[in-house]
Amino acid sequence: MPEVISARRKALEHLQAGQHSGLLLNRYLSQHDDTHDGAKELYKQLQDAAVPGVYRLAFQRWKVALQQLPHVRLFTATAVSPIAVGLGNESVLEVGLTLHHTYGTPVIPGSALKGLCRRGALLLKQQGRLHEEASKALFGYSEQSGESSTGYVTFWDAWYDPDSVGGKPFHRDVVTVHHPDYYSKRGGEGHYPTDFDDPNPVPFLVVKKGARFLFALQAVDEAWGQFAQKLMEWCLQNLGVGAKTNAGYGFLVPGKVDEQNKSLSSASSTMQAQPTPAASNRELWQNVTVVYNPGQRNLQVQRQNQGKTEGASADESRTKVLLAALPSPARDKLTQGKRRLLADVEVEVSGNRRFIVKITPKE
After folding, report:
1. pLDDT in tens, 2-36
2. Distance CA 171, CA 46 (A)
3. Which residue, 232, 214, 212, 215, is CA-closest to 224?
4. How far apart are CA 131 and CA 125, in angstroms?
């Protein structure tokens, strides 16, 4: 057995970053210790690596093959925040990332996209805007009685577009565990979270902001396909896909975003122009103070309503879009001045949560 392992390692000695990122992640870790030095070096290689030429050919073949299908709808969406799909995947590292098995490139599984759209459909059902039978037809169902049916829409995997972000889709991110002993030893054994603990930065790999993906839906007819596409586009830009969406990861906007200028204003106009199938309890909060938190890079607002305090917020990715849509004086006042701005704010209510949708400065 030692000879076999040695032979396998020798075969990997000449493997270079970019040939197959998935193989590098799973088989090329030089060391594994608390300093994460081996992981950092591995992530650096991947961050600097471009996708192989064979993938560009495969991507074009995939696109052409999809176009031959009946009632198929192809569209692109661009990440306005990092994407972390598959952090819980089994990995020799502490976190994983979903990659194409053959080419080692980023991919968003169709199952994840179907689950995301189902989440959006549940919001529609709660608002009385989608009938139960329509939801069953869209996603399929299986009853205890034995009755079952496939869905009217097929959700294909979304492939990374190699012409975006210079063909280098990966970025090394970091999550910091501030109280490692408390979490690892469950606190009850004398280890409590204090200001004297040593933070433990843990690197992990994500798909970088600006990466573009090709999405494909195949429906039984054009009407169902159009509805599914609008639903998915809304979910991608309002709910996010993958892990850490509450921290601002996983959001995409339809179409292409200018990667050189970051074009947040274009992203803002795109988001406002898109239909919002699951949105719609909207409220207008007049003459309220919007507060920008530079540490968490988010926006918050509060108001008094019938003797109660209500609050609404925008996560980091949505905050970037909202700031880009503001006139320069108002944006500077929020980000460089007093961090406060008097404005009328449009708020979307979803259950017990409230999200800032639009800001109209009053000063």
Report:
1. 455 555 555 555 555 557 776 777 666 666 666 66
2. 8
3. 232
4. 6
Please give the Cα distance from 159 to 110 (Å, whole number). Answer: 10
From the number of C-beta atoms within 10 Å of its C-beta (0-12, 13-18, 19+), residue 338 rates as: exposed
Q: Cα separation of 218 and 71, whole Å?
A: 6
**H/E element, 149:** strand 148-149
Confidence of residue 167 (pLDDT cuts 50, 70, 90): very high
Residues 100, 23: contact at Cβ < 8 Å? no
- What count of other Cβ atoms lies within 10 Å of the Cβ of residue 337? 13
Place of tokens 């920008």: 292
Indicate whether this model's pTM tops 0.70.
no
Please give the helix or strand (H or E) that residue 305 lies within, else none: strand 298-305
Q: Which two tokens stand for residue 90?
A: 């089994």
Q: What is the DSSP letter of 247?
A: G
Q: Where are the alpha helices (DSSP H) in the chain?
A: 2-11, 21-27, 37-48, 53-67, 110-126, 132-139, 180-184, 222-238, 264-273, 316-325, 328-335
Q: Which residues pair with 216 in a beta bridge?
A: 74
pLDDT over threshold 70, residue 270: no
Task: Identify the residue whose tokens are 């070096």.
Answer: 41
Backbone angles phi, psi at 152, to 5 degrees: -75, -15
Per the CB < 8 A criterion, the answer to whether 362 and 342 are in contact is: yes
Q: At 310, which amino acid appears?
A: E
DSSP 59: H
The amino acid occupying position 210 is: G
- Overall fold of domain 281-361: OB fold (Dihydrolipoamide Acetyltransferase, E2P) (2.40.50)
Q: Rounded distance, CA 214 to CA 195, Å?
A: 46
In terms of Cβ atoms closer than 10 Å to its own Cβ (0-12, 13-18, 19+), residue 191 is middle
Residue ranges per structural domain of the chain: 51-273, 281-361
